[in-house]
């Protein structure tokens, strides 16, 4: 097989790695959806965000504690010695006083502080769930990019290695022609220089592949072995950009999280205002005092139930300032929602444009490859009859290589861009992609701890 045939074969192999296909990958190969499922199941980044949500869940039972009574037990014991001296008489008495008591406090009305604190905590949980969903989206996008980067860099390395083989053959042919006087020493030097440059490009391609493999290992959790073809997510995308913008503005987790943040801020205003309202509570206590000595033993039992009403009159301006501050914070959060909406819309437009551009780059690159293959073949034939120089052949070879690398890159970019659009509209999820992995239920821990009155063990037994 001639050198042009070997180059074409390598290019076909490289391109096949990146083309989306509905055909099943070999049984031993890792599929793209399988890799995404592994990242979803074992990503440390995702597990950190899940743990953060479980931390946020505990804000709700903490807020609910304001509805519940507090109960405290007290106890004391000691020794008291009395030495009385009067003329002609001295009296010494030693007592062992002790007491036991229990006190219960129950808030009746606290300006709706508890109610609004609970609602704020619940909004924090809902916001945390959306933040987790957004983290899942970022992880899946990074996983898809890592998968496609390995395929791209593998294909590019194969092209560079094959190019080295072609240039080595070209150098041998040039040296043979130089030995019979058909070309000059300059032609040999040009071939040698091009081969040295190709070796350098091969080293760069190998380094890029190693970097991509390391990133893949970090995100997916294992070293890539045999990867199947990449699969685009275009079938999950809306038909038009306008439809995508409507979906993104309505469903993107970043926007929904920001809206829940507004709810939290508004409830915090009411929590701050509650300090200006009357506070009503009930306190009940039962105490038993023991006063023992060597000659007598007394027990005094007492019980009280007290209603307490506290009406704030002036707090030095602290509460008023805290309320104003909370209102400003709520206003800031409402403005932040507009910022997030603009960011989401910009991301959708940019991702959509990138996807369309990548499709056009593929078409252009395919045309360039076909044209450069014809040009290289013609240049070689013309060089045989002396109408072209060795440098012309080398330049044509490099032009063809560059167009093939661009085609591989464009194919990678199209697949990744489809996931970027899905991420931008807020629908890049394990459910949408149909990943075969157990879904994490973000509400399970919440329901397990919301109603707990007692116990320090976490639901998983820690």
Can you give a write-up of this model?
This protein has one domain (3-21, 38-435): Outer membrane efflux proteins (OEP), CATH 1.20.1600.10. The chain is 63% helix and 14% strand. It has helices spanning 3-16, 32-42, 44-57, 59-64, 113-179, 185-220, 241-251, 253-273, 318-384, 390-424, 430-433, 444-450; strands at residues 70-77, 80-86, 89-109, 279-293, 297-310. Strands 1, 2, 3, 4 and 5 form a 5-stranded antiparallel β-sheet that branches.
Topology (SSEs and partners):
Blueprint: H1 3-16, H2 32-42, H3 44-57, H4 59-64, E1 70-77, E2 80-86, E3 89-109, H5 113-179, H6 185-220, H7 241-251, H8 253-273, E4 279-293, E5 297-310, H9 318-384, H10 390-424, H11 430-433, H12 444-450
Antiparallel strand pairs: 1-3, 2-3, 3-4, 4-5
Strand content is 5-15%
- What is the fold named in CATH at topology level? Outer membrane efflux proteins (OEP)
The DSSP helix count reads: 12
Order of helices and strands: HHHHEEEHHHHEEHHHH
Class by helix and strand content? alpha+beta
Shape: elongated
**Unreliable residue runs:** 1-27
Biggest sheet statistics: 5 strands, antiparallel
Identify the CATH class.
Mainly Alpha
Compute the separation of the termini in Å: 67 Å
CATH superfamily: Outer membrane efflux proteins (OEP)
Tell me roughly what share of residues is in helical segments.
Answer: 55-70%
Please give the radius of gyration in angstroms: 38 Å
Q: Which second-level CATH architecture applies? A: Up-down Bundle
Question: How many E strands?
Answer: 5
Q: How many domain units?
A: 1
Overall residue-averaged pLDDT value: 86
């Amino acid at each position: 097989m001639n050198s042009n045939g070997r180059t074409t074969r390598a290019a076909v192999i490289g391109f096949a790695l990146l083309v989306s296909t509905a055909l099943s990958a070999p049984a031993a190969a890792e599929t793209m959806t399988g890799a995404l499922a592994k990242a979803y199941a074992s990503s440390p980044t995702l597990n950190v965000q899940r743990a953060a949500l479980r931390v946020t869940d505990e804000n709700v039972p903490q807020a609910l504690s304001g509805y519940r009574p507090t109960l405290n037990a007290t106890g004391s014991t000691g020794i008291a010695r009395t030495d009385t001296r009067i003329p002609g008489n001295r009296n010494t008495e030693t007592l062992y006083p002790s007491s036991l008591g229990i006190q219960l406090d129950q808030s009746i009305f606290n300006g709706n502080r508890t109610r609004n604190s609970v609602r704020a905590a619940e909004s924090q949980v809902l916001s945390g769930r959306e933040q987790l969903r957004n983290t899942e989206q970022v992880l899946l996008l990074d996983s898809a990019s890592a998968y496609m980067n390995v395929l791209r860099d593998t294909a590019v390395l194969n092209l560079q290695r094959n190019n080295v083989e072609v240039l080595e053959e070209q150098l041998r042919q040039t040296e043979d022609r130089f030995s019979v006087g058909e070309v000059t020493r300059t032609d040999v030097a040009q071939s040698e220089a091009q081969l040295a440059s190709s070796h350098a490009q091969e080293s760069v391609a190998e380094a890029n592949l190693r970097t991509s493999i390391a990133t893949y290992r970090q995100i997916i959790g294992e070293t890539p072995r045999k990867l199947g073809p990449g699969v685009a997510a275009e079938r999950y995308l809306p038909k038009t950009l306008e439809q995508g913008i409507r979906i993104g503005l309505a469903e993107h987790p970043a926007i929904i999280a920001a809206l829940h943040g507004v709810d939290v801020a508004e409830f915090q205003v009411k929590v701050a205002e509650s300090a200006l309202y009357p506070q009503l509570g009930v306190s009940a206590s039962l105490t038993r005092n023991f006063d023992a000595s060597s000659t007598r033993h007394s027990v005094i039992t007492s019980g009280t139930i007290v209603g307490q009403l506290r009406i704030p009159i002036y707090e030095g301006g602290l509460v008023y300032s805290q309320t104003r501050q909370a209102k400003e914070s709520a206003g800031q959060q409402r403005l932040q929602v507009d910022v997030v909406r603009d960011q989401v819309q910009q991301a959708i437009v940019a991702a959509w444009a990138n996807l369309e551009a990548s499709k056009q780059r593929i078409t252009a690159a395919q045309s360039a490859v076909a044209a450069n293959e014809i040009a290289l073949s013609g240049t070689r034939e013309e060089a045989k009859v002396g109408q072209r120089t060795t440098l012309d052949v080398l330049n044509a070879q490099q032009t063809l290589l560059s167009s093939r690398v661009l085609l591989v890159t464009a194919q990678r970019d199209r697949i990744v861009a489809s996931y970027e659009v899905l991420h931008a509209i807020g629908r890049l999820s394990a459910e949408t992609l149909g990943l075969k992995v157990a879904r994490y239920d973000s509400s399970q821990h919440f329901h397990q701890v919301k109603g707990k009155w007692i116990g320090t063990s976490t639901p998983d037994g820690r």
